[in-house]
Amino acid sequence: MESLLQMERYAYKPKFPEALNALPSEVEIVRHDVVKASADEQELKSIFKTTYGMPLVQFKKGKSSIPATALTVGFILSGGQAAGGHNVITGLFDTVKDLHPESKLYGFLNGPDGLIKNACIELTSEIIERYRNTGGFDMIGSGRTKIESPEQIQASIETVRARKLDALVIAGGDDSNTNAAILAETFKQNNLDVTVVGIPKTIDNDLKGGLIEASFGFDTATKVYSELIGNICRDAHSAKKYWHFIKVMGRSASHIALECALKTQANICLISEEVLEKKMTLKDVTNYIADIIVKRAERGENFGVIIVPEGLIEFIPEIKYLITELNDLMGLKGDEFAKKKSYTEQQVWLNSHLSAQARKSFEALPEQISRELLIDRDPHGNVQVSRINTEQLLIHTVTSELNVRKKKGTYNGKFSTYAHFFGYEGRCAFPSNFDADYCYSLGKIALYLIVNKCTGYIACVGNLSKPSDKWEAYGIPLTGLMNIERRKGKEKPVIKKSLVSLDDKSFKVFAEGRKIWEVHTSYVYPGPIQYFGNDTITDTRPITVTLNNE
């Protein structure tokens, strides 16, 4: 049985750029300047011999010589879920069928693993109609397999040949799109006439920059989190006795935290990039929070809401140094460490392998946190930051600091806390109208990149702060977004993550606003996502996207 909302969402007609409201023969491709990487250009040229140095492309209404021939396209959802993934697929499906009714779209099952194992289904109208404008990735599933080894690459080549694919579309974050760039280069070097196209997906919004103004799923996730944070703000204001420490997703960037802060005006929002730029130690962060708690207590307000990005711990200098050393160490000697079963054995092993600086930082952490730094690594060999209870660490350090101040007579308030983590709650919600429109547009752009044989490109929608018919359709060379980074102790090409810039207008507006929010209760209550009604409510854009593009 389907919910009434689900049935109504099936009928929603996504909006998209005016330039794409045409048949492929009526869409012209315009080639602009070559897109160069901002760093490591020579290294990237040597790796991507055939796909580095390509131009930015734009699609406009005009004339095209594209023949209306049937295509066979494969599609992969890669990485964590993000609202709107199904709309990318439906946008691509509708457009490839518009090109030629005998075109085929295959969905590879459970992410890149499906490509390696040649596990896929043909996506038919009957399947597509059940997933229009819905959340989740359950149409075909997702996965985090990285196609790296010669065996995996060869298996992928064999699948492409067996399925007679003309193109492969990969929706994912920075690592998944790095994979797309590598496959595009590999296919070309192996004389495979297969166009590989990437789609920018991650609720963290760290796959953006330049013409890529947002990653899909970010708007929906931040609206869900902001509703919850707003509810907690109202509860805190009503009960007047709790400080809520709320961790939100955002391992490498604080875009989610910043967006939620602007939407709710919580008392405190920590921005990891600011902590790093100002070289704030754990003690500095603790004192910053404690100072605000004291000021509010003096006003008789022993309550508040604090937003904490999940990746904060990696941006505190002494802990960042520790984690970097741990990541390198585990990348080189992870098998040796895995043999140490007890925490005591692990400590002894670490004492003999960590530098004095890193060892000092490790020993200063509460045991719960230091244990969490040693749990299983992610597929890239890094600490799984989302499993570290950073909000609990801050509760621990702030409580200790306030106790010291009480003994000195500089604090006489009450401090009771609750900890929360909002993550999975926002990844699979029904996509907002913005994400439904945006993702459908990305799917359409993918097809235009395919028919123009733009391999190694990522689909991009520009001008997102404007009404959807004013949006612009682009393709950006993936290699132009890359740099060289150290992963598992080795230098590898990866798409550079986009962090919050302290020069962004969105951060500056936040920095000015928090001067009031920190001390005066100024909460805003966004409420739930609105799908029906006046478009001034239903079609709102992310605040950060709007501010940064004014």
Report on this model:
This protein is an alpha/beta fold and 550 residues long. 42% of the residues lie in helices and 15% in strands. The protein has 20 helices and 15 strands. It has helices at 4-10, 41-47, 85-99, 112-117, 125-129, 150-162, 174-189, 218-239, 255-264, 272-277, 282-298, 317-338, 343-351, 356-364, 367-372, 390-408, 433-451, 505-517, 535-538, 543-548; strands at 27-34, 55-61, 72-77, 104-108, 120-122, 167-172, 195-200, 243-248, 268-269, 304-309, 417-422, 457-462, 472-477, 482-487, 490-495. A hairpin with a 2-residue loop joins strand 14 (482-487) and strand 15. The mean pLDDT is 94.
Radius of gyration: 24 Å
As an assembly, this protein is single chain
Mean pLDDT: 94
Low-confidence stretches: none
Q: Which overall shape is indicated by the principal axes computed on the Cα atoms?
A: globular
Sheet having the most strands? 9 strands, mixed
Q: What would you call the structural class?
A: alpha/beta
Total DSSP E strands: 15
Task: Walk across the major sheet and give the strand order.
Answer: 1-2-13-12-7-6-3-4-5
Give helix % range: 40-55%
Per DSSP, the total helix count is 20
Percent of residues in β-strands: 15-25%
Distance between the termini: 45 Å
